[in-house]
Amino acid sequence: MHTFDTVRYVIALVLLVTGPGAALFWFPIHPFAAFWRRVGAGWGYLVGFGVYMLSAVVLTVIRRPLLAIEFGTNRIALVSGLLLVVAAAILRRIWHRQLKLRTLFGLPELSPGRHPQPLLTEGAYAHIRHPRYLEVLLAFLGYALVANYLAAYAVVLFLALSFVVLIPMEERELAERYGTAYEEYRRRVPALVPRYRRDR
């Protein structure tokens, strides 16, 4: 196996092992936020990380058949992928200015009394409601194009479908926490695809 083929394989393996679990982590969290607030946020994270680790272990064990189909090195895919990775890095730098680490890990959701968080409506959040999800999709798609493995593209599809389910779950909790302020924000700002309007 040539050096770049090894690099592509490693990228595909990392995407396979980490991607699904990163989305699955939140499925026990968002729908049951009120429950975790009562019993303690730590239990919610324990369950979430348990789901993540189970996914990672299972996918590592069955990695060989999942990574059996690859399409070789494609220059157009490679360049496109690198551009998407750069775009994702720029977007991450932008939203990271507004989003603290504790918010990234959902502490204001699971423990709002101890970790209050004002509604984010500035910076990247002035253009889209979920810049983190967009950044993840851009990054994973970019790396998938570099790797050019079928499993890597399947992970991107899985993440996209997961976000379709997770976003409404997350937004129900945000609407409960911020009330009409979030409802107005949701009407005004799109979820993932920014709208640019020319001033007249």
Q: Secondary-structure blueprint of this entry?
A:
Layout: H1 3-24, H2 33-39, H3 41-61, H4 63-66, H5 75-96, H6 101-104, H7 107-110, H8 131-147, H9 150-178, H10 180-188
Helix pairs in contact: 1-3, 1-8, 1-9, 2-3, 5-8, 8-9, 9-10
Summary, kept brief:
The chain is mostly helical.
Explain what the structure shows.
The chain has 200 residues and is mainly α. It has one domain: Four Helix Bundle (Hemerythrin (Met), subunit A) (Up-down Bundle). Helices cover 70% and strands 0% of the residues. The protein is built from 10 helices and no strands. The chain has helices at residues 3-24, 33-39, 41-61, 63-66, 75-96, 101-104, 107-110, 131-147, 150-178, 180-188. Helix 1 runs antiparallel to helix 3 (41-61), helix 1 runs antiparallel to helix 8 and helix 8 runs antiparallel to helix 9. The longest helix has 29 residues, at 150-178. The model has no long low-confidence stretch (mean pLDDT 91).
